Amino acid sequence: MFLRKKKNKSGSISIQIISKQRGKYKVVKTIGNSDNEQQIQKLVFLGKQEIERLNGQSKLFV
Which residues contact residue 48 at a Cβ distance below 8 angstroms, ignoring those fewer than 6 apart? Predict the structure, then answer.
């Protein structure tokens, strides 16, 4: 799983969790969208936490 930043028609950026299954990409969850850079960074942080939760693993090295 990985995070994707996708630009919308409105100019805002959506943060999505993507999984590749059987050669196709699937949107697992949309974290949110914003046009504010600080808010985007916060959404990326939340997305990384959500990926860890979905995988059921914690990082060995910080």
Answer: 3
The CA distances from residue 34 to 9, 22, 55, 59, 60, in Å, are: 12, 31, 26, 28, 31
Digit-coded pLDDT (tens) for 16-61? 999 998 999 999 999 999 999 999 999 999 999 999 888 886 666 6
Q: What is the pLDDT of residue 60?
A: 64
Predicted pLDDT at 62:
59
- Give domain limits for the chain: 2-55
Bridge partners of 6, per DSSP, are 14
Q: For 52-60, which contacts have Cβ atoms below 8 Å and span 24 or more sequence positions?
A: 54/1, 54/17, 54/28, 54/29, 55/1
